[in-house]
Amino acid sequence: MRYKGILSYDGTKYSGYQKQVKDPTIQSELEKAFLLMTRIPTDTFAASRTDKGVHALHQVFHFDSELDLTSSEWTRALNKRLPEDIRILKIVKVKPDFHARHMAKSKIYTYKISKKPLSAFKANHEVYSERFNYDIVKDLLKVIEGTHDFSGFSPNKELKPPIKTIYSFKSSETKTHYIFKIHGNHFLRFMVRIIMGNVIAIGEGKKPINQLELLLETKDRNLSAMTAPAKGLYLTHIYYR
């Protein structure tokens, strides 16, 4: 039987989602929990390989198992064996051909910028910029929307197709934060963080107002601002066709 799981995690202590030989990762902890629970090695396949320090509110994965268990049985048993900064939210049966990564239609990422210096309890979960001027950047985000070649927003060492579609790039302001949400069909590695790094640089006056347009037009990664810190980024939702 094939199962689909929804997972949330605090990425602070982990070197990203995908398994690595030596460093702790979300996938390695998840598969360790399956082994402790079932005594059977279980391979898991996730929708997104989030990077070191990136968090997830809604990561999707799938796995195969001969065990016929309910969502609550899977969830309760696995959460007992997972670290507290990794939580299973739900596990459901799906069709045998479901694939968490290949069938993903689009993803939403959220980036959080605090208006105040960070406390010890928030230091790993958002960023703070003393000179960030939200009024400068809030009307510039639509430049990113649409189908573009995003070569200027990623090292793309994997040489993946750089043309992606961004359905929306919106922001909102609360009493305590500036919240940025970007929804796209696919993303290159570091793409969201590089976009946000340039947004922050514009807001701080370190890059020109037309910086986002410039990178889209030139496709020159060397003109980019620094990549925004991973700790402010959250994988928020994944949609399926």
TrEMBL record:
The active site is at 51 (nucleophile). CDD domains: PseudoU_synth_EcTruA. GO terms for biological process: tRNA pseudouridine synthesis. It catalyses: uridine(38/39/40) in tRNA = pseudouridine(38/39/40) in tRNA. Residues 8-101, 144-240 form the Pseudouridine synthase I TruA alpha/beta domain. GO terms for molecular function: RNA binding; tRNA pseudouridine(38-40) synthase activity. InterPro entries: PsdUridine_synth_cat_dom_sf, PsdUridine_synth_TruA, PsdUridine_synth_TruA_a/b_dom, PsdUridine_synth_TruA_C, TruA/RsuA/RluB/E/F_N. Its EC number is 5.4.99.12. Substrate binds at residue 109. It is an enzyme of class 5 (isomerase). It holds the Pfam family PseudoU_synth_1. Keywords: Isomerase, tRNA processing. Homodimer. Belongs to the tRNA pseudouridine synthase TruA family. Formation of pseudouridine at positions 38, 39 and 40 in the anticodon stem and loop of transfer RNAs. This is tRNA pseudouridine synthase A. The gene is truA.
